[in-house]
Amino acid sequence: MKLNILFVDDDTNLLAGVRTMMHSMRKEWKCRYASSTADALELVGKYPFDVVVSDMRMPGMDGSDFLKEVEKIQQGAVRIILSGYSEMQAQLKSTGSAHQFLSKPCSTDTIVNTIRRVAELKDILTDDKIRKIVSELDSLPVIPELITKIREELERPDPDIAKVGRLVEQDAGTSATLLKVVNSTFFGFYEKITSPSRAVVMLGTEVLKGLVLGVNLLRELDVDSLNGYSVYKLWDHSLQTGYFARAIAKCESTDRSFIDCCFVSGLLHDVGKLVLITKMDSFYQLVLDAVAEQGGPVVKQEMRVLGATHAGVGAYLLGLWGFNEDVVKSVYSHHSFKDCGDKLTAPLIVHVADCLQHEIGLMDSDYVFYPLEIECLEKLNLQDRLEVWKEECAKAMEDKYERC
Known about the structure:
Elements: E1 3-8, H1 12-21, E2 29-34, H2 37-46, E3 51-54, H3 63-73, E4 78-83, H4 88-94, E5 100-103, H5 108-120, H6 128-135, E6 141-142, H7 144-154, H8 161-168, H9 172-182, H10 196-214, E7 219-220, H11 231-252, H12 256-268, H13 271-277, H14 280-294, H15 298-306, H16 310-320, H17 325-332, H18 346-360, H19 374-379, H20 386-403
Parallel strand pairs: 1-2, 1-3, 3-4, 4-5, 6-7
């Protein structure tokens, strides 16, 4: 089945160039083109689109406002900004309407690969209702106490950017949202940034102020609406899993980017739960009720009740936002890891870290979770390293609580 793609740009010469670039994809994609937002909205009202790619600076209605209208009409469509417009305020505004951002000039390979990657995500999350919920998100919720601390620091006359970085690294929602922004090509960084604290440094004080204090990209989670669900336990588990993954990675590698990837993958492994609890009243309460009545593990009840798991939801969101493939794979497979490969990878480390956190962390004693895939460690001759990893993870947990 062909993908339906809409390209929107008021520069007819550039649009003709895109049409030429996409000619080679005609067997896989059905592409339509519009030179104004009015024409584009008419097409959106008539045809279903899997992906909408829009220029940012256009007369009448800019790309950001246009994509917000697209979201209202077709919630499940993937929204991508493609623009050479470099004015900072426009960049900040676009963070609330697009899933990904590409800068002009942009090669055919970049556009094609970006669209292909997001199209392949449908295999991860097949339920249309949940996919629409995820597609509507422009940020993840943040626990109130943390966002208050971040705002207070940024409102100081001379904010401590290193302190903001440390605060951001403590929260999955904040980390994921800012990493989505910093890895857009708008900011011109030529490698994927996987460290939340480095993302803060790279964005800089003024951009952070614009995101947090201006367009309010970071939003408080309404804890009172969660019907007794402890988001603080989820927060603590996610943070510890990130620390554990980093500790294991440091035992086996000196590669800074690999270690950072393992940390952020561990920190973000349960972001799917953050997505689902924002719809607590709508349907996730049914999952928690099923766990209370029939027992866990929770992913089993999620699949039975929703037809999707928080692992799939989280992987879909991060893939939609253009995250590193290893991070997406780590989130997707953290409960049940089967693809051992021939070396120790970030997904396997996150799986081990998650299991060890449940084993030695401060979780409820009656919590049911999937066991460690010891066969993978045996295949890689790493089973003897497990005790070393446990010791390092225990130290990481002690260090964390000493800092609190």
